[in-house]
Amino acid sequence: MTEREMLDRLHSAVAHAAPSDVDSVLARCGEQKGILDMTQATQKNHKTFRAAPWLAAACLTLVVAGGGVGIYQQAYAVQSTVSLDVNPSVELKLNQKEKVLSARALNSDGEKILEGMDLKGTDVEVAVNALVGSLLKNGYVDELANSILISVEDPNADRGAALQQEISAEVETILDAASVQAAILTQTVQDDAALQAKANEYGISLGKAQLIAAMVAGSDHLTFEDLAGLSVNELNLLATNPKNALPDTVQASGKASDSAYIGAEAAKKAAYQHAGVSAGQAQWTEIDFDYENGVMVYEVEFTANGVEYDYDVNAATGAIVKYSSEGGQASGGVNQNQGNAQSGKDSRAEAAKAAALKHAGLSESKVTLLRTEREWDDGVLEYQVDFVCGGVEYDYEIDGATGAVRSAEQERLDMDDADDADDADDDDGPAPNAAGYIGAEKAKAAALKHAGVAAANAYDVSVDSELDEKVPCYEVDFKCGDLEYEYSIDASTGAVLSHHSEQDN
Question: What's the whole-number mean pLDDT along residues 178-187?
């Protein structure tokens, strides 16, 4: 019940309880002088009592108007909304006295953090202490990922800023006691219906949605979908790149941990090796975190022998995600203006394909389902070359530096396998890899990764093969929380062709 509704009801009660003959009542009150005769009092007792409901209602009105509503608001009305995001997202509703009215998990990881907790009625400091303790206990915050986003929504700007600082100091104290050097991002947020809908769609807080939207607005290549599934620590690392800087509305303290990644030196080494230049030849330019093709990368830029190189190196594995060179003849067989690993023509991949075909004694025109993929094995570049000819599947591993055949396998396909390569309607489905397709499990993994959903949290998962389409694909459907997801995954590359999510009613 709102304050206005409460007052309306009280005024209605007064109107119905008050006597209609006010003048008569006042006249009777005026006759009472000196010591009241008890006989008269007894005779008029029933008249006096007529005024009791009116007096009681009037008194109740005064109490409510004079502070009753204020007391109610202090105890039960939501004054502030506080959210904590790591990868788990948790939201607290606070009253005016900074006591918790409710605690809500916004995603499955948040549910794990809140498990077994009843924070209602506790001071915000106690609640924050419990939540951060649970984050530490469950391994969401440690020396590998030390960033936490604190967002405060409060109609009173000064109060919101003070609460923001208060919680930030409390979190820093808790993590310091746990020997974790915290990296804390804090911000105030404002109610935004469109952004809230976006937050609900991805199972994150309004605060995290606001941070992502600001980073996307300042970037020339990042999208909301790209960043929604990332942890706050990954977002914080991305923000170290001047191209993805945090907005001015976000206050940052501490340094985001990069201990989960290979490190800048290893990234440079991988780029130098791929370019075919030595560390001595390379003139150091710049290295920053970025996000490309669904992975965290080191963006490495350097020059060597008059050639400018630009590399994206997988931050977790050291694999080359994208590269380009410009400005003369590059060493190591990389041509001027080479392009990148995704869209440009890779001369080493072409050489690997030629080496595999030569080893098999076949020409490219004689084979089908030819596929070449670049991989890194313990820091060594190699190419996987697969193709089919005469009912036989060929699998090759080619050394990326020398072009030598590292391994070669052949497997004869049975009739069902051969038929499945062309017909998606067979009951037994496509033969994994035989037709050059990634298979249902990899398609499912690609969809879950794009959605930012752990396999353990997905349910009602189904994968349907649509290999007779113009672009062969897998249709992947699953649910997580209260959302239903639909994905179309390229059967050959694993790329996301289309996706959709909606509230599961």
Answer: 93
